[in-house]
Amino acid sequence: MWESGLKPIPSSISFNDFLTFLLFHLRTASLVKNFLTFIRFSHTVFALPFALGSMVVAANGWPGWRVFGSILLCMVFARTAAMTFNRLADWEIDKRNPRTAARHKLLGKGLAIAACTVSSLLFLGTTFFINPLCFLLSPLALAIIFFYSLTKRFTHAAQFFLGLALSVSPVGAWLAVTGSFAAPPLILAAGVLSWVAGFDIIYATQDLEADQREGLRSLVVWLGVSKGLALARLLHFILLIALLFFGVSAHLGSLYFFGLIPIPFLLFYEHRIASTLDLGKINKAFFETNAVVGLLFVVIVTLDRVF
Q1: What does residue 139 show for φ and ψ, rounded to 5 degrees?
Q2: How far is CA 290 from CA 70, 226, 228, 233, 276, in A?
Q3: Alpha carbons 118 and 20: distance in angstroms, whole number
Q4: In 3D, which of 192, 205, 254, 208 has the Cα closest to residue 54?
Q5: Domain at 44-306: CATH code
Q6: I need a surface site. Which of 65, 86, 91, 242 has the fewest CB within 10 A?
Q7: Over the stretch 192-251, which tens digit does the pLDDT of each residue have?
Q8: How many CB atoms lie within 10 A of CB 292?
Q9: Which of 90-112 are b and which e, b meaning 16 or more Cβ less than 10 Å from the residue's Cβ?
């Protein structure tokens, strides 16, 4: 009698098999969680809204699933590459900083190198399917976001280089839609640069002693906390001006401009918390306030273009 070579599915499995299955999936879930923590995946909310807002304006609405998906993938791959590179560059330094001492325990160095390499290649590959200009500029974009991680070693302007790295996102999204440069994304990029440099000055107050001990440079190390926070306020004022000029250059309507009204109050709240020098409150205000600013921006841009 002919018999199939396929093994029948067992009607039941042993407790040991079930336990092995469960442990495997728990380890996988733990690894994914550790990886997302390692790259601070939650901080994606900072750059992504400005990329999506730029996309909506460039497309004058919905750009289609292919463009949207390509932009989203580029953002995820580029940020993953940048963050893993940053962790690798600061591997030994982070071990000696109480705030970051546990980072290297989340992911092995070999896996971090692999993640950085794979995400970089995936970013380059994704841009190939968008348009020739995006693909041509993609190595430059990677170079900019990688370079930031080295700047603390030789310049106090490290916060501005972080701002530059994130400011690439609205320009890249615009190019993905239109395939050409224009004034609105460049104005928005200037705003993002100022915004990021400002909030990273606030964030850097947590690491002042560690940076001084390691001989690292930052605007806070150079200016001190009080003057550093004053510069952060000026940079966030520049953000507000840039958002206004972006709306004018992109011919956005009253819905957008009225939607900007809460942003100065959100930034005022952030700076009020920062002035207390309470590190626990600063970290909370830093994430929540800037996440709301980004979310509000993409919402008002989208509503303005749709309605």
Answers
A1: -65, -35
A2: 25, 21, 18, 14, 18
A3: 29
A4: 192
A5: 1.10.357.140
A6: 65
A7: 999 999 999 998 988 888 899 999 999 999 999 999 999 999 999 999 999 999 999 999
A8: 16
A9: beebbeebeebeebbebbeeeeb
